Amino acid sequence: xxxxxxxxxxxxxxxxxxxxxxxxxxxxxxxxxxxxxxxxxxxxxxxxxxxxxxxxxxxxxxxxxxxxxxxxxxxxxxxxxxxxxxxxxxxxxxxxxxxxxxxxxxxxxxxxxxxxxxxxxxxxxxxxxxxxxxxxxxxxxxxxxxxxx
Length: 149
Description:
Layout: H1 3-14, H2 20-27, H3 31-43, E1 63-70, H4 76-87, E2 92-97, E3 104-110, H5 113-126, E4 131-136
Helix pairs in contact: 1-2, 2-3
């Protein structure tokens, strides 16, 4: 990973729609050299995919919630079931197995408390959980998709 590749990645993380001409100008490389580098970064798996970020508020998703889960089950069968069930809920954005007191942390976006309640009931009706609790985001201080390069 050299400086030119890092610059290209920073530009693409800020706006994946940045034209090849703009990237080449900012990185001080030819258009073809930038294109080849981007293609190589894709082939190497550094660039996984390009996405469009949406405004949650414009889509009536006003509430971000972090759901903390404890379970007494730590076997492969339960974990696979949990993964499959979590994947069926489009409001769940991320599921993380963690160290410490919690076993799993879920990040979700919902329209309101009623929507969260439906998500909560959907999870607890299908899974054996020791404890489930939620923290609702009151203020979004920093939220980025850009990785430090």
